[in-house]
């Protein structure tokens, strides 16, 4: 018999069986529909949850900061308004000349610097604030600003009809507040500052000056009069800072990235994975007619975690911080598998361990941590950090193993999707006096939850060791 | 079960549109795709399993995979061929992981590589032939299906099942002999029943 004849039988069978069509029962589609619908829903829920949390975090951060800025700017603006309204109803534009912006001055120590503009104004007093060292922090830029403001004030005096806003709202690109008060004193202020001094508190003289301004014969009579002190004193209670310094209690936004090694094992460090027979191939033994294979050992591999977080001081004295965040976590493990089974997805035989296979695990993680400062060094603070992580498995291509007949296959239903973990680490803060300090140090994570109750990952726990970096934004 | 199947021919344009709609997760399109291919694919699953319930379970699992991996279909071959491969692989996994089949799915490597000299005509109905194939031991049944019906080579089968190529050949030869024997017996019985002779 020829091969051709032999193939006729196969051809006949093939032709016959290709025509085989059997209508399935209705329950099949019902079950399929349920399962594909559930998968879509699961994905949707994860995405919605992710974006909701991201939105809430960023929204909360933005709201908190904008609220804080308003709080800082409010008192100074208010006090000027309060002061101007009763004393000057003739030219309110001067009284409104307040520009609010941000700056870097400290709160308590203040002094007065008088800047004279002989040609234009008789005397103008610039109230500025000093830093802690007591040095007057007026620089060239600020001087220029004051000059500009004074010049604009003069223009306003000379030209009462000029657009109010042009005079009353000079721009300060350094972010200090420039206040042209009732007596034409220019005060450069930092938002949130507590006190300025005032030499003269005569309200009548203010009115006189204002009257003279309006009559156009003011320039030679303008004298430096400080009324800011009184004004601020009135409003002191609203401006005064608390000893704890609220700036140290605000939420700070940051990004974090950890890179290292993800490990798996029954012990926290996954030491038992460092099996020396990693490259030994299955099978190990044979029973009857069929071989029983053993799975190749798992090798620890790359892992990384990246995300965003917010952090705030719990209290200034205890030097401790709390942080909340959301992260994407990637862990991977490598094992050896045989050749793929046909074009099957994630299916390999175990007859020979010829190929390396990377088992990827993608998690969405919600870490909550507490940090304690270990030293008193302000230049290089050291922190010990500890916390808990709740993770949700988003997807995985990890393989399970069937000893007989020797098959690697993917079945994520065996995994516990939600994992509870503990983390700890030590970090040093670099550039701690900058606006964007960087924390860096070793980080360790251990998953308290078992990865699975059965299968290849039965009773195994994930752990991760690596270097963690954090960049903080918005530090004042 | 009734076997009244309406085979709806589908043009390439409709096909592409249907796939696009399925990728957009439109339930009507998914239903339509299922209805178009389910009878043919259940025929495939039927040949690999021992009961209709198992065949439907494989079909269900296979279609879940089809919808989940639809974006991986690159359009470089026939879509029906792509689905069929998924069904076959799902069936193999089912056999390997299901307790009922696992112990029956042994490949005796001591079998001699027999060569059948017979080449009978297959006068059976499709369903009858499929039923006979299903009566084979699971190992024979699987290899016969993979080689004779799906057209895989012995080397490929060996790789898929984790056995040697020689085992695949000998198992197939054995399965062929048994099946031919059964076909002949079945045909004789049929004739006897038909003409009332013994």
Task: Describe the structure concisely.
The complex is a heterodimer of chains A (476) and B (198). Chain A is built from 8 helices and 17 strands. With 476 residues, chain A is of the alpha+beta class.
Outline the structure in words:
- The complex is a heterodimer of chains A (476) and B (198).
- By secondary structure, chain A is of the alpha+beta class.
- Chain A contains eight helices and 17 strands.
- Chain B is an all-alpha fold and 198 residues long.
- Chain B is built from nine helices and no strands.
- Chain B has helices spanning 12-23, 27-48, 52-68, 79-97, 99-102, 126-135, 138-149, 154-161, 165-195.
- In chain B, helix 2 (27-48) packs across helix 4.
- The chains are: A alpha+beta (476), B mainly alpha (198).
- Chains A and B meet through helix 1 and helix 2 of A and helix 2, helix 3, helix 4, helix 6 and helix 7 of B.
Topology:
The complex is a heterodimer of chains A (476) and B (198).
Chain A: H1 3-18, H2 26-87, H3 92-95, E1 110-115, E2 124-129, H4 140-158, H5 164-168, E3 177-180, E4 186-189, H6 203-215, H7 228-234, H8 236-239, E5 252-265, E6 285-287, E7 290-292, E8 299-315, E9 320-337, E10 348-349, E11 355-373, E12 382-396, E13 399-402, E14 407-410, E15 418-430, E16 438-447, E17 461-473
Parallel strand pairs in A: 2-4
Antiparallel strand pairs in A: 1-2, 3-4, 5-8, 5-17, 6-7, 8-9, 9-11, 10-14, 11-12, 12-15, 13-14, 15-16, 16-17
Chain B: H1 12-23, H2 27-48, H3 52-68, H4 79-97, H5 99-102, H6 126-135, H7 138-149, H8 154-161, H9 165-195
